[in-house]
């Protein structure tokens, strides 16, 4: 507001110089002074200039006032203009012009409408009649038909619409408190939208042949249905149609009703010289964009009874007859209302609700997240979602909380004891303020927006329009939104704690039944057990219980947003039992939002990680910093283990250290994986590095044990470990066997038989250390891929190894070498091993026709013999059609055929080889991409299955909940089970086509 001192400093009849205008609130003082001196504003008294200085944007108000004055002078409304600016109505006019340039444009086009600023706001029940009369339709007719159509009719609707809109905006802008006035403004805007729909329908009837054969009801949805409409917004509708008499067929009802609906939408959306109204959006109808535009009541009944998703019933909570045939519209509402209040008991209610929330969040551009009043955190949608979810949960048994609009529903929930009165009052005020602010944003240009602007000029105009100090405007808005977020947690989750802990602090404490219903509605499948966990965490008067009561509202919400809230809450309780007495654990949860949110994500996503955190509880500390989650390099792990081995010769102690280090590091990798700090390729690399480091340390311990048992030659031999399979390819999973072969060497005084005997002793101890369940290291070393398999020698000399592969190896054994890599041993020996491997696996003659036929026969035999009979082939991630084995065999065939010519193909990595094959043209790029995508997804799903279940399996589950869990783990979002399966099956079908062509020539 203008300071009194500034007003007193201005002479009543003196000119307004730049300094005085600046004190009044003008920014562009020179320009505004020039405009105010224009002859078209000669009638403007100094008192009105002072009022202009109090508007949201004095400079813009001045420009708009001059344009209106010029238009009035040209249109012979000069007297009207002078009367308005010379009276109290002039103050209302400039307040409007300072907020809305768009409505200033309307008055410039129609200065004859200036008298509206002298009048009171119109009754809402008059809007329909005014709009219908403007186009020559009878408001009292059962089916009003416009006598004025085409461009002229559309313009008349727009002119009358904006006339009424100006009156609503005037009442809004000049209200003593914008927040207090906000609900009435939205009700008026909703009534105006309904009247406009009726006028558009009257024009549609004038254009559609046989329109009188069909009754059409326009059902308002969303904000329009709840009478919470903005100045500019899509108007969500559903169309219900019926025959006007018994002789009209169902096909005619659909065809004529559809024609009326389409023409109605065009009347509203078409842009003319008078602009457009808004888009009519019918996408909330059954089957969305793909569904029939209009339906009969019987058709709606069939769809909502058999096919509708839960979110559709939540949307129907706001359904209201808005235009057209009122009786037919009421029949629609009476049909769906009972279904709305049973929706929370339907299968999939929680999943559909989460999906709807996810779609809301995904709509926000990252640059707007913290400025989006509607969708951002702590914004309008948070309030609406909280209220609607409480209604859906408790409204099934309490019909006193069925109001469609947010604020009325909030009041009802408060009266019913579901929300504490002080919290409801805060939430009510915050919602009103943000809605009023959203309206001020839209009024400026009458554009659809809910994003707070960033430019200083826009922020100044917006804050002044809300009668706020521009310097603290954004700070105050941030505080409001933080409080809304906090209130959401307190209103929805804290009563659960109060009920469980049998406490009362002036907030709402639910009955046990209500608490279970609320838990079930947000995703807890065993709500009774969840309540018991909450009680165990919060009971008592200890500091630990007090902190848990502070933390749990946020944690319960984050767990509810996770893949399996029940799993997460149980794991959190166990972890709290383990760590609750430590000073750092609860402090970390209280002080690090990142760590707390990550913890809930991993606990609700992975049974394996939850179990690991119980074994390595200190690992929870890493969740606060990405750097702590980064996997350690193989070299650093080896260095740590070496340092321990230099300090002691106690084998039992060394095994304990090895067990601890492996458990700790695999937990770190899993945490980084689930929190998406690293990508899947890094996961495989880190698991392989860890396995190699553990194997190297275990060899040291095995030598030490052999020596202590009297095997004097054992410490003298040196073993080179050749990694095979996924170990050699650097593609390991969490529970992958470490497939290996061993090459032994030693001093010259030992014969080959002595070397083999000593090496076998060491390897036998090694297997006992790593394979025995009692050791707890949980890393199986498998040497079954050695020459002659299980019947062959466990270790061989380099000469024996070379001779076997050069002279005796079978086709499958040579193929297995394509994924072999020496990882542990002397560098010179590893180089010699690679030389032998390359000679065998990359033959100079390439892949001969006979070898190609043998390879195809082997693959066919594997497909017929190794796939488990009980498993669905398409769901087997390793052996299924188009899955990992298919891709690997294609790559290995092409490596055998071309690697002797192309050294870049000499890699053990499947994906690297595919990229080389595509780059050199051996494999078409599209085929290589298909194989790569299928292999990646199958690999990720295998690892996700292990993380989810905590045990190894290669078969995709049939349960939709488990599939959705896997989708969340591999994508980081709640991709539906169906979407994930469709994506996987599509990829593997395409990959199988490539496999059949490349391996079998089909």
Automatic annotation (TrEMBL):
Keywords: ATP-binding, Ligase, Magnesium, Multifunctional enzyme, Nucleotide-binding, Nucleotidyltransferase, Transferase. Its EC number is 2.7.7.42. SUPFAM superfamilies: Nucleotidyltransferase (SSF81301), Nucleotidyltransferase substrate binding subunit/domain (SSF81593). Pfam families: GlnD_UR_UTase (PF08335), GlnE (PF03710). GO terms for biological process: regulation of glutamine family amino acid metabolic process. GO terms for molecular function: [glutamate-ammonia-ligase] adenylyltransferase activity; ATP binding; ligase activity. Residues 91-333, 597-833 form the Glutamate-ammonia ligase adenylyltransferase repeated domain. Residues 355-491, 857-996 form the PII-uridylyltransferase/Glutamine-synthetase adenylyltransferase domain. One of its GO terms (cellular component) is cytosol. It comes from the Bacteria. Transmembrane segments: none annotated. This is Glutamate-ammonia-ligase adenylyltransferase. It comes from Helcobacillus massiliensis.
């Amino acid at each position: 507001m203008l300071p009194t001192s500034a007003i007193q400093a201005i002479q009543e009849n003196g000119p307004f110089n730049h300094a005085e205008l600046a004190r009044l609130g003008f920014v562009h003082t020179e320009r505004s002074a020039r405009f105010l001196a224009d002859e078209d504003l000669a009638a403007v008294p100094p008192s009105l200039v002072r009022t202009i200085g109090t508007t949201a944007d004095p400079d813009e108000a001045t420009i708009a006032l001059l344009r209106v004055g010029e238009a009035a002078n040209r249109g012979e409304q000069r007297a009207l203009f002078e009367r308005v600016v010379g009276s109290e109505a002039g103050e209302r006019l400039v307040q409007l012009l300072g907020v809305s340039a768009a409505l200033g444009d309307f008055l410039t086009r129609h200065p004859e409408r200036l008298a509206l600023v002298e009048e009171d706001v119109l009754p809402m029940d008059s809007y329909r009649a005014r709009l219908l009369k403007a186009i020559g339709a009878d408001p009292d007719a059962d089916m009003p038909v416009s006598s004025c159509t085409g461009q002229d009719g559309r313009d008349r609707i727009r002119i009358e619409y904006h006339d009424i809109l100006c009156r609503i905006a005037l009442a809004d802008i000049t209200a003593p408190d914008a927040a207090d006035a906000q609900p009435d403004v939205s009700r008026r805007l909703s009534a105006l939208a309904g009247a406009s729909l009726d006028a558009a329908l009257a024009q549609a009837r004038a254009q559609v042949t046989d329109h009188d054969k069909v009754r059409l009801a326009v059902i308002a949805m969303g904000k329009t249905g709840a009478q919470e409409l903005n100045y500019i917004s899509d108007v969500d509708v559903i169309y219900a149609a019926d025959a006007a008499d018994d002789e009209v067929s169902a096909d005619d009802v659909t065809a004529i009703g559809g024609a009326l609906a389409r023409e109605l939408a065009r009347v509203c959306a078409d842009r003319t010289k008078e602009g457009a109204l808004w888009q009519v959006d019918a996408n909330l109808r059954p089957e969305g964009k793909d569904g029939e535009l209009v339906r009969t009541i019987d058709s709606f009944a069939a769809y909502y009874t058999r096919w509708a998703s839960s979110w559709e019933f939540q949307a129907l909570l706001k359904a209201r007859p808005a235009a057209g045939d009122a009786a037919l519209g009421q029949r629609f509402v009476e049909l769906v209302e009972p279904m709305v209040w049973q929706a929370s008991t339907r299968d999939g209610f929680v999943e559909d609700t989460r999906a709807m929330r996810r779609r809301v969040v995904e709509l926000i551009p990252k640059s707007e997240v913290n400025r989006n009043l509607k969708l951002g955190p702590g914004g309008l949608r948070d309030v609406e979602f909280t209220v609607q979810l409480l209604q859906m949960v408790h409204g099934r048994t309490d019909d006193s909380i069925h109001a469609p609009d947010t604020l009325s529903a909030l009041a009802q929930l408060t009266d019913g004891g579901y929300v504490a009165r002080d919290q409801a009052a805060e939430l009510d005020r915050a919602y009103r303020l943000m809605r009023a602010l959203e309206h001020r944003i839209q009024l400026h240009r009458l554009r659809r927006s809910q994003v707070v602007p960033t430019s200083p000029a826009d922020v100044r105009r917006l804050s002044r329009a809300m009668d706020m100090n521009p310097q603290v405007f954004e700070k105050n808005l941030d505080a409001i939104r933080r409080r809304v977020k906090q209130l959401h947690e307190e209103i929805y989750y804290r009563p659960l704690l109060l009920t469980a802990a049998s406490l009362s602090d002036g907030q709402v404490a639910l009955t046990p039944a209500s608490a279970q219903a609320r838990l079930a509605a947000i995703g807890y499948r065993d709500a009774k057990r969840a309540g018991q966990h909450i009680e165990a965490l919060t009971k008592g008067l200890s500091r630990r219980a007090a902190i848990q009561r502070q933390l749990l509202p946020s944690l319960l919400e984050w767990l509810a947003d996770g893949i399996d809230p029940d799993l997460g809450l149980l794991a959190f309780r166990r972890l709290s039992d383990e760590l609750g007495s430590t000073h750092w654990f609860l402090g970390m949860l209280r002080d690090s939002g990142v760590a707390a949110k990550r913890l809930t994500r991993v606990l609700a996503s992975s049974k394996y990680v939850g179990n690991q955190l119980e074994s390595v509880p200190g690992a929870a500390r890493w969740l606060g910093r990405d750097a702590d989650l980064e996997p350690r390099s193989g070299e650093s792990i080896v260095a740590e283990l070496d340092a321990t081995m230099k300090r002691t010769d106690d084998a039992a102690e060394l095994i304990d250290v090895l067990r601890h280090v492996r458990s700790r590091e695999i937990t770190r990798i899993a945490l980084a994986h689930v929190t998406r700090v690293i990508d899947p390729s890094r996961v495989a690399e880190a698991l392989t590095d860890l396995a190699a480091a553990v194997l190297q340390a275990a060899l040291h311990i095995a030598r030490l044990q052999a020596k202590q048992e009297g095997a004097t030659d054992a410490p003298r031999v040196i073993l080179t470990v050749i990694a095979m399979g996924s170990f050699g390819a650097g593609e390991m999973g969490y529970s992958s066997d470490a497939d290996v072969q061993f090459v032994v060497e030693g001093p010259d005084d030992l014969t080959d038989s002595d070397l083999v005997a000593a090496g076998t002793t060491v390897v036998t101890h090694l297997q006992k250390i790593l394979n025995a369940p009692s050791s707890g290291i949980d890393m199986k070393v498998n040497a079954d891929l050695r020459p002659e398999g299980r019947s062959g020698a466990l270790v061989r000399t380099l000469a024996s190894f070379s001779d076997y592969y050069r002279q005796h190896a079978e086709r499958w054994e040579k193929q297995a070498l394509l994924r072999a890599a020496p990882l542990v041993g002397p560098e010179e020996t590893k180089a010699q091993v690679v030389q032998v491997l390359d000679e065998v696996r990359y033959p100079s003659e390439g892949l001969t026709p006979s070898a190609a036929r043998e390879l195809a026969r082997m693959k066919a035999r594997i497909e017929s013999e190794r796939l488990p009979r009980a498993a669905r082939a398409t769901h087997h991630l390793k052996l299924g059609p188009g899955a990992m084995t298919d891709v690997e065999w294609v790559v290995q065939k092409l490596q055998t055929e071309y690697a002797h010519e192309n050294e870049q193909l000499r890699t053990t990595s499947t994906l690297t080889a595919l990229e080389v094959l595509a780059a050199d043209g051996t494999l078409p790029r599209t085929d290589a991409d298909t194989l790569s995508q299928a292999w990646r997804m199958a690999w990720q799903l295998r690892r996700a299955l292990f993380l989810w279940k905590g045990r190894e399996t290669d078969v995709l589950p049939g349960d939709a909940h488990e599939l959705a869990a896997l989708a969340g783990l591999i994508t980081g979002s709640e991709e539906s089970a169906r979407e994930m399966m469709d994506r996987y099956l599509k990829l593997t079908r395409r990959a199988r086509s490539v496999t059949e062509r490349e391996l079998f020539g089909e």
